[in-house]
Amino acid sequence: xxxxxxxxxxxxxxxxxxxxxxxxxxxxxxxxxxxxxxxxxxxxxxxxxxxxxxxxxxxxxxxxxxxxxxxxxxxxxxxxxxxxxxxxxxxxxxxxxxxxxxxxxxxxxxxxxxxxxxxxxxxxxxxxxxxxxxxxxxxxxxxxxxxxxxxxxxxxxxxxxxxxxxxxxxxxxxxxxxxxxxxxxxxxxxxxxxxxxxxxxxxxxxxxxxxxxxxxxxxxxxxxxxxxxxxxxxxxxxxxxxxxxxxxxxxxxxxxxxxxxxxxxxxxxxxxxxxxxxxxxxxxxxxxxxxxxxxxxxxxxxxxxxxxxxxxxxxxxxxxxxxxxxxxxxxxxxxxxxxxxxxxxxxxxxxxxxxxxxxxxxxxxxxxxxxxxxxxxxxxxxxxxxxxxxxxxxxxxxxxxxxxxxxxxxxxxxxxxxxxxxxxxxxxxxxxxxxxxxxxxxxxxxxxxxxxxxxxxxxxxxxxxxxxxxxxxxxxxxxxxxxxxxxxxxxxxxxxxxxxxxxxxxxxxxxxxxxxxxxxxxxxxxxxxxxxxxxxxxxxxxxxxxxxxxxxxxxxxx
Amino acid sequence: xxxxxxxxxxxxxxxxxxxxxxxxxxxxxxxxxxxxxxxxxxxxxxxxxxxxxxxxxxxxxxxxxxxxxxxxxxxxxxxxxxxxxxxxxxxxxxxxxxxxxxxxxxxxxxxxxxxxxxxxxxxxxxxxxxxxxxxxxxxxxxxxxxxxxxxxxxxxxxxxxxxxxxxxxxxxxxxxxxxxxxxxxxxxxxxxxxxxxxxxxxxxxxxxxxxxxxxxxxxxxxxxxxxxxxxxxxxxxxxxxxxxxxxxxxxxxxxxxxxxxxxxxxxxxxxxxxxxxxxxxxxxxxxxxxxxxxxxxxxxxxxxxxxxxxxxxxxxxxxxxxxxxxxxxxxxxxxxxxxxxxxxxxxxxxxxxxxxxxxxxxxxxxxxxxxxxxxxxxxxxxxxxxxxxxxxxxxxxxxxxxxxxxxxxxxxxxxxxxxxxxxxxxxxxxxxxxxxxxxxxxxxxxxxxxxxxxxxxxxxxxxxxxxxxxxxxxxxxxxxxxxxxxxxxxxxxxxxxxxxxxxxxxxxxxxxxxxxxxxxxxxxxxxxxxxxxxxxxxxxxxxxxxxxxxxxxxxxxxxxxxxxxxxxxxxxxxxxxxxxxxxxxxxxxxxxxxxxxxxxxxxxxxxxxxxxxxxxxxxxxxxxxxxxxxxxxxxxxxxxxxxxxxxxxxxxxxxxxxxxxxxxxxxxxxxxxxxxxxxxxxx
Lengths: 558, 683
Known about the structure:
heterodimer; A: alpha+beta; 7-stranded antiparallel β-sheet; B: alpha+beta; Nucleotidyltransferase, domain 5; 5-stranded mixed β-sheet
């Protein structure tokens, strides 16, 4: 153990460099990957870990990646003891039931050596475009077993010293639909790990490896101390909340319950999921890494943003995940669509903490990331597959109206421009608008959802709609009403309307129109307390209708 | 007009810098306080001083080039015009919805990411019209409906109207007709068309940049008109020319037509100034690092060409216009040092700014800053800060560091001050590394060119961190922007969408599109005071892989043997450089671009004229990292250093606009034109 005190300046210099290294790894990863999901969706992350498997620094563009490599490192260390690792070795895995997330997310992990001794790990996780399984893209909405979702990799050596595991690579190439892209993205992960290893080794040359190890420990301790200080300021107690997912896409009438009991005490923050639904048949099950990512996001969101993000922030977190439940399914339950579940878990933990920290937690956000996919043929018989991700409104907070149509909590994805969609596929976008009156009223109004209307212009189109918040509204807070639920309706060309039950896979024909409305955020505080000029402004700007304005009617609007 | 004077005027937040050049006379520099209410007043004041101090007559001014922050300030201060936005039916809210991504990842109470302030809902209308993705008219323009919408907006107070119709970059007829409908009745209302401002797909980005254009148009128009009138009144015969964000200059007609291209007018001039300073010293690959009070701007120049980007940000919002690629990080002389809850020493991103400024300014600042550390370490002379314009109170800075940092951490104030410097340097070095790597470059082969008041103070430390072996401190880093104005080419750039697969599009179609671009550029160039023979034409194409949305700009040579094959090869090379791989897959054209430029008459670099004083001012005791005790450093007067003078670190070189710190292990030499070149000792 370190006995002499560390120089605080060197500690801070090293911290800046560790962040810089993680950013450089992430840049390398994004730049040298091939697939659009990494390049444009930023669905990849890079981290440095201590030898004990705690996060030292992490570059993330999407919070869902936060901390998800932690269980992977633990598993790899369990299978390949540190003493057996050699310089240049690389390890990989993706099995959700051994510490992974869902099969497209492959972890590549590299031990970093200094003076011949292990110093740390550099690690990356990338969402690969395709890892086999029953549908292109490896996120089958109708999967009922993990085996349908792609190839499963237990912890394996990807490279031993300078020799790649050709057997593994050969098997992988035969099990994915676009092997060149797959291998390109995998090698981008290798490149990013190597950049991290090279720079960390250079750092060790400057500062000495023992000195660095002591600094790593100090940095983690500092973030832990600061996080615990903030948690300690919350009143001790157990805070409960329940929320629901619409369904699992298979059993359409069965809501999925997420229940949490968040205990704040001297140990930190313990989240017990007892009472949550049993695992489901459809792919919405979340393995433990998912709940961990949600919990880590919440801890970063409710504590001081200036606390450096590292494994120390996560030490106070303990999770109780009932076996066989939606948050800790048994093999071989399918897991690919767990994003919606992680978003709901994050929202439910926040909802519970609203009772611990009144005023700090906003009303519920729309809490959905609507996934749309269209697959069909163009007039020239070429095929297209396109899709988009659509957000709802943010919940209002004590001080601010919720933001309209914005990504919240665990996800952070861009929508698709109408012009990009129309240039690619014979689909016309008729409307891309704010959804008036969808934000919960309140002293602070919830953010609005969006309305999108599409018309199919040609042929038959395979259409996937994976929604949320169609049956359970986002709650208001502190007396504010709920936000509007999402809804979607198919208007058939030949007449007739079909209401989409949150999840749907169907066929659309030329002339059919689909109107999607995403959920609004909940309101905050008594609507009657909203300033009259704000109500008038919302009315003038079309955010509320004359009818919607009545919700604020304790005093009539002048 | 030859034989006349050339004047470059760069208006910054605090000072207006003026550089005057003329044949057979030394370069002259003026620094006068900016006049924020009406920036053109400072310009006219400068002309007055030129006359009284140097006897230079306004009538002899043959070139007048201006870099301005007027467009940027209108946005930052929310003082633009009241804008009405009219869109295709169904798309009125695109401006407010944006791309739905957030930048504050862990914030619970979010702030909007879109510039709704430009045109809130009550100032937006949608009307019937529709162009399809192949340019065909699907729904004709509802002229009566449009006119009604415009009337309503104007009656509600709109001074400018932005018109953004879907796919107008493929068929601009509806937008053009819409403008006619407005100007026929309201010739005084400013109109911005998306097909002219940014003819490219993705409706949100096009809407934002078009609406920004309308927002700043009346402000820029009024400003340039006042300034031009002022010049005329002062009997200046030269036409007013303005620096644009890409680093080229144009006449006021173009600047007033497309003001959204002025957002980086000032920084672009700085980058051009750095480029010519580098050229004069034979350094063509440069990383410029401009360290001011609150932020640090980083830019790359490769092979004498400043890196450009096709989309930048203003006040956090995306603006899709070409601009010099300047990257800002929140670290500067005013960055505040503080202790976090675990008593970790942190620096920035909070800054004391110019007011109250660092504690040692004595303006009421109580928190310790990087500048306070610089004074305590002996790098800055409190008696002669900023050329003696300001006297510092070092004891206030020392007190702040002692109270906030050294005391609580149980270290000496000297150790704390050194620590503050080391942390700031680590942050900036990581920032520079990321900027270079993002553009596919290894920083080690570049020369570091420090700018701003504090750049040269940190340059040696940054170079050490980055493995850079050479530093170039230009003669007047403080007025490099003004000098850059005089060196920039006159440039016009227009582009058009041509979203077609290569292999499908014919050379005749491309030729036709280029001819139209050339005609438009030519018309713009005809308004400038340049000879037709001096104009060079270059073409570029935005190209992407089929099925991918993000494109890269590559040069296009229509006269090559196989222009399309050459274009694909150029794209693969660019893709490989930017992303590290480049499969030989099919590619698509996205946009075509023509750039016409007339290079500025290159004035030979002026020989350096030392002031004749003794170069060595005094010896100072300074503190350096890895030295326990203070070390002696020679302090030189930059203005007195002569060509070929050499010096060795530790040394300090003082000049009015910056202070250079040469650390041990570095030696410096003054070149023929007065640049200070620092190189690392080889041992």
